[in-house]
Amino acid sequence: MVSRDRSASLRRDAARVHLRRLTGDGAGEIEHWFDHPFARAYLGDRSWIHREVVLLAQRPGTVHRGARVLRSYGWIVLDHAEVPVAYIGGDVYDRWVRYHGESADGPILSGAEHRAAMALTYLVDPARWRRGYGRAALGAVLDHPEVADVEIFFLGIDVANHASRALAEAAGFTLDEPAPDFEDMLYYRRDRQSAPLAAHRRAPTAS
Hints:
GO terms for molecular function: acyltransferase activity, transferring groups other than amino-acyl groups. The protein has helices at residues 4-15, 24-30, 37-42, 47-58, 133-142, 162-170; strands at residues 18-21, 63-64, 67-78, 84-93, 96-103, 106-113, 117-124, 152-158, 174-175, 185-191.
């Protein structure tokens, strides 16, 4: 068991992170993280991160589930010693809208808000779980100047992924709707005007 003092030290280290743009070389540095069963279950195998490098340039301008992609980002999260500790990325959309699947007439949508919204996906190095890096990665993105125009941030989390759900709540995200969607996903949302991330409680998670 990690001592209380050691745990506090690890979390102080986790708070000192910064972001580096994802590149092909960077994807190669972290691809082994995707060998972990948790990563494979919720994201995919090593090919996922390499495919993401390509899609970052292709997604802007496309329409996905009723919203237009304005920009796409992928970052490797580095600790104070320049060691990769997490990946985080996502798309900035022209609106927030709830997607309920497809019909013969097109996507089934509700609750559109015409404000810039960003969907986030992240993975912490499995060797560094329970050290606060997931929350630090989220905080680094919310504070990043390139997304200063984003008013709504959200996380789509599988209903069975209890660790990520706990992290989302600890980071100030709130459950948008209590019932999972048609893909068994829950959506957690955090508005720009919410209280600073540091003000929210910390909760131990696997991320």
